[in-house]
Amino acid sequence: MKSFHIVTFGCQMNEHDSERMAGILEERGYAPASVAENAGMVILNTCSIREKAEQKFYSELGRLRTLKKANPKLTIAVAGCIAQQEGKKILSKAPYVDMVLGPSDIAGLFTMVEAHRRRPVPVIETEGDPEYHHKLIPASRTDGLKAWVSIMYGCDNFCTYCVVPYLRGRERSRPPRDLVQEVRGLTEKGFKEVTLLGQNVNSYGKGLKEGSDFPRLLGMINDIPGIERVRFVTSHPRDLSDALIEAVRDLPKVCESLHLPVQSGSDRVLAAMNRRYTSSEYREKVKKLKSAVPGIALTTDVIVGFPGETEDDFEMTMGLLGGVEYDNIFAFKYSQRPNTAALTLTGHLPENVKEARLERVLSLQRDITLKKNSRLVGTVQEVLVEGQSKKGGKLTGRTRGNKAVNFHGNDAPIGSLLSVRITSAGPNSFSGEPCV
Ligand code: SAH
Ligand code: SF4
Ligand code: F3S
Predict the structure, then answer these.
(1) Mean model confidence pLDDT for the chain
(2) What per-residue confidence (pLDDT) applies to 123?
(3) Phi and psi for 340 in degrees, rounded to 5?
């Protein structure tokens, strides 16, 4: 039996691309292997967002080299963003690699596998399929309840620190008809929740012949019977329109939860990042969101130690976090990435300064998260029952704000919606009791 194993690094989009590669291979009779040691083919689906992600990939590749020495028939494929970045250069660093394929070449995976089987020389595809966004690609999803659906590929924003536009190409939106069809198919398989994926979902629809925008797409997905919850990532603050705020307010299945990356609280740094909004414009949008959708869960991304970031700039980021009070944040130390404009800026900061600032934002956020979480105690939340919790005998699920809740209630079927009263809050999860 032909078998494969995929190791995934990076964002949800990459996670979903791995599900698609698995879907393509399973359709052709390949079986998933739970560990690389048992697989005939291993795919590393890579990420290049920060230097650390790249290092993780090279250490995993080194491990596969040892495996291949023991089993020369092992096929090693490198997919994802580092594959796109390095192309055939990967072969000079790692001549034992058999296949290199970029994120927009996934649809051709099986053709590459066949070509390599007929003639075992390295196969490289990083040109990108111009019709990729019109392809319907099968996916072998790991979860039976919650599904990712890519609605668009690429990014046009060119934030000065970011490699994504260089590696995922320009923005291309999938036609709404294909998306509705995909989500209908998911409901037939019992899926209850979809998360719509794109680097900047708010600009969905640019260049589509049929003409549609993101709020309208949300409406179409909301209307599909069987789907209970709709989420989406990522929203660029500049493109967060009133229409989108109204859609989140009015569409019953669209969850009251938004990831809205701010990156910095300093206008000087935001300009140098090419984010194209000011911190007061950002705060204004948050204010609108909070008044239109009371209790909305907000999360964000922050970069500390961007080139030229002064102590004052950094304090503005701290001030913004204190003012907005996010439910949670993802914070990163600025990392130099190939080809990006920020490389040429002056004022690159030493590692110890970045490290200290990272510690400070994380510590501030820990307090804010705990404070916000404790406010939920005593409230009743709608929970989608997802399965058994790791801690003895309880069920686990998520609120519309995407918070994990553990509760007793063994007769609640997986996939059902339950009203749960929150009884206690921790930093990462809650305990509750079902309301009867
Ligand atoms: N398209 C999304 C996600 C981009 S990557 C968005 O615009 O938000 C996810 C996060 O990684 C970014 O929001 C940013 O905070 C972080 N990131 C990207 N490039 C980085 C770099 N060079 N160094 C540190 N963090 C980075
Ligand atoms: Fe990168 Fe900016 Fe595009 Fe997000 S919006 S993927 S941070 S360039
Ligand atoms: Fe990484 Fe590429 Fe996603 S660089 S974060 S896998 S788009």
Answers:
(1) 96
(2) 98
(3) -75, 150
Q: Which two tokens stand for residue 79?
A: 């997919």
Q: Which residues 6+ apart lie within 8 Å of 127 measured at CB?
A: 102, 105
Q: Is the peptide bond before 278 cis (omega within 30 degrees of 0)?
A: no
* Inter-residue contact 311 to 268 (CB < 8 Å): no
From the list 342, 359, 353, 335, the residue with the least C-alpha distance to 52 is 335
Residues 6+ apart with CB under 8 A from 371: 325
> In this predicted structure, what is the pLDDT of residue 390?
78
> What is the arithmetic mean of pLDDT over 333-352?
98
> Of all atoms in ligand 1, which is nearest to the CA of residue 335?
23
Is any atom of ligand 2 closer than 6 Å to the C-beta of 200?
A: yes
Centre of ligand 2 from the C-alpha of residue 254, in Å: 24
Rounded CA separation 16/138 (Å): 11
Q: What is the residue type of 12?
A: Q
Q: Atom 15 of ligand 1 has which residue's CA nearest to it?
A: 301
If DSSP states are collapsed to H, E and C, what string results for the chain? Answer: CCEEEEEECCCHHHHHHHHHHHHHHHHCCCEECCCHHHCCEEEEEECCCCHHHHHHHHHHHHHHHHHHHHCCCCEEEEEEHHHHHHCCHHHHHCCCCCEEECHHHHHHHHHHHHHHHHCCCCEEECCCCCCHHHCCCCCCCCCCCEEEEECEECCCCCCCCCCHHHHHCCCEECCHHHHHHHHHHHHHCCCCEEEEECCCHHHCCCCCCCCCCHHHHHHHHHCCCCCCEEEEECCCHHHCCHHHHHHHHHCCCECCEEECCCECCCHHHHHHCCCCCCHHHHHHHHHHHHHHCCCCEEEEEEEECCCCCCHHHHHHHHHHHHHHCCCEEEEEECCCCCCCHHHHCCCCCCHHHHHHHHHHHHHHHHHHHHHHHHHCCCCEEEEEEEEECCCCCCEEEECCCCCEEEECCCCCCCCCEEEEEEEEECCCEEEEEECC
The reported pLDDT for the residue numbered 95 is 96
Distance 162 CA to ligand 1 centre (A): 6
pLDDT at 210 over 80: no
pTM exceeds cut of 0.90: yes
Atom of ligand 2 nearest to the CA of 263: 7
Instruction: Determine contact, residues 403/429, Cβ cutoff 8 Å.
Output: yes
